[in-house]
C-alpha cells in the first residue's frame, strides 16, 4: 500500500512507492518535463504512461525536489499566525509535481526495473532522504504545526481535521523535530545512509530473483500439471532457451513446482535458490546490510529517547507497544508449531507408505502435504485449479464489489488510456445506481523480468474533496506465470485468495470518502485488515456457483469438491501460520536485540532454535530477502500487523456469518463500507471497528478459523 501524503518526507523513502499529492499552481515557461506535467485526458486526467522515458527522471526529480522544498518554506515563513488552513491544509497542497514523478518512477522501480533504474534509485534515494530531513527538521514549520495542534486541543476541529493535525504533529515529533541542532544533523545523516542501504537491499534481492533460474528437461517433468509445464516452456522460450523448461526464482513459480514435482533433488535446488536470495555470500549478499540497518535504526531512535526501534515505531499503531504485539504472536505460536508436528507426522506416514526412504525436509513439505490432502480429504489441488481461471476470478471480484460496494467495473478498450506495458488492462469504476464515475482500476497480472515478485496494490491518485473532488486511480499487480498463447491462466486456491486480498486494497482506495489526501493513509497493523477480510468472499456460494467453472467443459465446480475444500479449510494451517509467524517474530526480535556486532545469519538460526522452530520448514521471508522490513520501513517491526489484522478479520467475518443474509447481508455490508472502508485513516481504527462490531475484536474467532484450540479465559 502507498504511504500517506505527509508521511512521504517523514520516512526514509524507497523509490518505487507510488504516492499522490495535492495541487501546485506555479508552472515554468518552457515545455514541461513529461514526468511533471499535469495529467490530462479523460477521467479528470490520467498518467501519461505512454510518454515515460527514463532520461527525463533526473530533471523531473531535481525540479520536483526544489519546488517541494520551496512549498514548505513558504508555509514555514508565512507571516500570518498559524492556522489549520494556512499550515496543515497548505501542507496537503504541497508537492504535486513530486507526486507525479514518484508515480512514474514507482512503475519503473516495481514493474520495469533495469540496471539503469537501479542506478537512479541509488543516486536519488539519499537526495530524497535529505529533502525529507530538511522538511521534518524545519524549526519554523514545526512551530506552526505545534501551534495548530495545541490550539486544536483547546478548541477541537471537526473529527477528520483533528486527526489530520494529530498525524502532522506526531510525524514531526517522531522524526526529530524537538532535537537539538547536533542531534538533528546526525538524525538526517542516518536517514540518508539508510535510504541508500534500503535501495541496495532491494536491488540485491531482485538480482537473485532474476539471476537464479532452474532449467529442466522433458524427462524431469514428472508430477507437474500441464498448466505449469506449458508456462515453464514459455518462460524458457522467453529467456532464449526454447526446448527447455524454466522454473524462475519467484514464489509463483517455486510454490507449484515444490508442490507437484516428483524430482526431489530438483525440488531441493529450486527451494535453495528461492530461500537463499540475498544470502549467497557474494556481492549481492544482504547480511552486512541488515547489520548496518539494525544499528542505524537503534541509534536514530535513541536520539529521540527511546530504548529500541519497536518502542518508537508502535507508539501510534493499534498495538501501541512491542509487548502487546509479542503477546498476540506468542499466544498463537504454540498452537501453530504443535500443528506442524501433527502435519509432519502425517506426511512422514505417507512417505513411508509410498516406500520413499526419506525424512521430511523443507523442500518436501509442500509435496507431501499435497499427498496428505488427497489422502485425508480426497482433495487434489490441481483438480481445483481447473476451475480457477484468472479471468473468471476477476469477474467474481467485480461481482462482490457490486454487491457490497455498489460498484460497476467496465473494461476500457485498449488505447483509451495510456498503459506502461501491453499486459496492463484498465476498467472504469462507477456507481451501479447513479452511474457516477468513481475511478479507474489498472490490472498488471503477469510476471516478467524487472518486475518485483509478489502481489501488491497502489493508488496513483487518491480520493479527496478539500479542494474540489478528485477521483481514484488504483492498481493491482500480480506475478502469475503468463500462459502459452491461447491457454487460460489457472491458479491455485491460495493464489486466488491473494488475488482477492490485493483487490481488497484497491476497494479500500476506491471506496474512500475522506476530505484530505493524507486521510487516505493508514495505520500499518490495520491496513491489511480490509484486504484480508475480502478473501472470505472467495468461498461464498455466489462466487462458487457463478465463477468457478471448468476451463475445458465450462461445468460449475462440483459441490462435492467444494465440500472437500471447505472441510480442508484448516488443513496445513500449521505450515501457513508458522512460516508467517516466524518472520513476524524475527522482525520484532531483531529490532529488540542489541545490534552491536550482530551477525544476522547466526541470530536468525539461534533465535529460531530458541523458539523451537520446526526444522521441516523455514520463515516465509528469510531475513536476507525480507524486503518488507529491510528495503524500507513500511513493515519494519510491523510485520506482526498481518496477524493483528487477522484477529479483526476473523471477528468481522463472524459478524457476516451470523447475519440473516450471510456474507451478502445488506445491513452488515453497509456498516462495513461506512465504518471500515470509507473512512480510511480519518477515524481511529479501534473506534471504527467498535462502530462496526459494537465491541472490540476477540482472538477467539481467529483461533476457531485456524482450527486451533481457543485459549481459556483467565
TrEMBL record:
Family, as annotated: Belongs to the peptidase M3 family.
One GO cellular component term noted in the UniProt record for this chain: cytosol
Peptidase M3A/M3B catalytic domain span: 257-707
Record organism: Marinicella litoralis
Protein name listed in UniProt: Peptidyl-dipeptidase Dcp
UniProt keyword Metal-binding present: yes
Requisite cofactors: Zn(2+)
Record's keyword terms, sorted: Hydrolase, Metal-binding, Metalloprotease, Protease, Signal, Zinc
